[in-house]
Write a structure and sequence with these properties.
By secondary structure, the chain is mainly α. Helix content is about 70%, strand content about 0%.
């Protein structure tokens, strides 16, 4: 795979994360679940920023950024706070795996970006009830 292919693979995951987290956040009551609401909305904002960074990086490489799908399938019914938390954790876990793969396939600035994204995502998993891991994303 080329560097652009590797980055586009992660961009595809970011498109999904942005859509899914926006959908999950829209199903939460900020008053009834303030901590979870803050976590999901914070994750959504971070993934939007990462998506935009990847698009710009691909444009800098004169590559065509992958387009987002029209919609994505939620990992569960997301009809209560616990299901929403689990779904958000699953989204974050998938992104952590993408970042881990990107770390192994890139170098220089792209690798540094992937390492920062990996670390942030691993910490975000903990805030969503995930378990710590020596090698997140693997």
């Amino acid at each position: 795979m080329s560097p652009a292919d590797d980055l586009n693979e992660v961009l595809t995951g970011e498109h999904a994360a942005v859509w899914l987290l926006a959908t999950l956040g829209g199903r939460l009551s900020a008053a009834a679940n303030p901590d979870l609401n803050t976590a999901v909305r914070g994750a959504h904002g971070m993934h939007r920023a990462r998506r935009d960074q990847l698009v710009q990086r691909l444009l800098d490489l004169e590559a065509t950024p992958a387009a987002a799908a029209l919609a994505y399938e939620l990992p569960n019914a997301a009809s209560n706070a616990e299901q929403i938390r689990r779904a958000a954790l699953q989204v974050e876990t998938r992104c952590t795996a993408l970042y881990s793969d990107l770390v192994s396939r890139t170098d220089g600035g792209d690798r540094s970006w992937a390492v920062r994204a990996l670390l942030d995502s691993a910490v975000r998993q903990l805030g969503l009830g995930g378990s710590p891991s020596d090698l997140p994303g693997t």
